[in-house]
Write a structure and sequence with these properties.
Elements (H helix, E strand, L loop, with lengths): L17 H17 L3 E6 L1 H11 L4 E5 L8 E6 L12 E7 L9 H9 L8 E6 L5 E6 L3 H7 L2 E2 L2 E2 L1 E4 L13 E7 L4 H9 L3 H9 L3 E3 L2 E2 L12 E4 L3 E10 L5 E9 L3
Antiparallel strand pairs: 1-3, 2-3, 4-6, 4-9, 5-6, 7-8, 10-15, 11-12, 11-13, 13-14, 14-15
Helix pairs in contact: 1-2, 5-6
Length: about 260
């Protein structure tokens, strides 16, 4: 098995993702050199795609984020199959306890508290809620005590963090809504403009300023043609999954999508 060269993967991804490529190539080369399995940090779907592209068929990839359909997951790389259990991914579920009768937490404020605590965002996973005021998130085992000791307030709300077993993990609320948009073009700027009710000029500027992503990757090209199953996101607006595309009698396109609006 040959060592990977990071430069051979550069043409497949945007220039901004080269540090991620370099890191993952290093992990793969470490795997084949030491012959020891590797457990990554929490990776979003875009980073996992890069990792799987680098690994190819030369290693086994297993992943878990703490619950079914998690967005951010830790990846276990190995040369031989191992029958993993949730505990093998070294993830700790954390519950946020707070006075629910008198206060309200939001995803954005929780994310801000975690991100500003002095750790990298890939050290913790998804933040989930059941829509009834209960909130949980997932962290790497080795940082559990750090979060429990350091975070006692989220925004103006006093909180207490508590480790919980996996059997107490919430079934997350699905906040998506289904929509249908009629657009003149399947260019990404046209589709995002129609969905977000902004002009194509406004959206084009946002794309040029790296405020949009396609399938979890940064883009700066407004001419990309979207297709079914693409995931689009626009900062401060939300995320969209394209579920169907068809033509109308007037030469336009009917785009069916699931939309998750950004919550503060």
């Amino acid at each position: 098995m040959e060592r990977r060269q990071a430069s051979s993967f550069y043409p497949h991804f945007e220039q901004e993702e080269r540090p991620t490529i370099d890191k993952f190539v290093g992990l793969f080369n470490q795997l084949i050199f030491k012959q020891e399995a590797i457990l990554t940090d929490f990776l979003d779907p875009g980073k996992r795609e890069i990792l799987k592209t680098i690994v190819g068929n030369d290693a086994l990839v297993q992943e878990y984020g703490g619950y079914k359909n998690a967005e951010k997951k830790r990846v276990y790389l190995s040369l031989d199959w191992e029958n993993l259990r949730p505990n093998d991914y070294q993830i700790t579920p954390i519950k946020i306890e707070y006075p629910m009768k008198f206060a309200k937490l939001r995803h954005g404020s929780i994310l801000g508290a975690l991100a500003n605590s002095g750790v990298e965002t890939d050290t913790f996973g998804d933040i989930i809620t059941d829509g009834k005021g209960n909130w949980q998130f997932f962290v790497k085992n080795e940082l559990e005590s750090f979060f429990l000791e350091q975070i006692d307030r989220i925004g103006r709300v006093q909180v207490k963090l508590r480790e919980i077993p996996f059997k107490e993990v919430l079934i997350p609320e699905d906040t998506s809504i289904q929509k249908t948009e009629i657009v003149a073009s399947l260019r990404i700027d046209s589709v995002l403009a129609g969905i977000s009710r902004q002009s194509r000029t406004q959206v084009k500027k946002l794309i040029e300023n790296k405020q949009a992503k396609l399938n979890w990757h940064d883009i700066q090209d407004s001419n990309i043609i979207i297709k079914v199953r693409d995931i689009l996101s626009l900062r401060h607006f939300g995320r969209v999954e394209i579920t169907d595309i068809s033509s109308t009698r007037k030469g336009k396109y009917k785009v069916v999508l699931k939309l998750w609006r950004t919550k503060n």
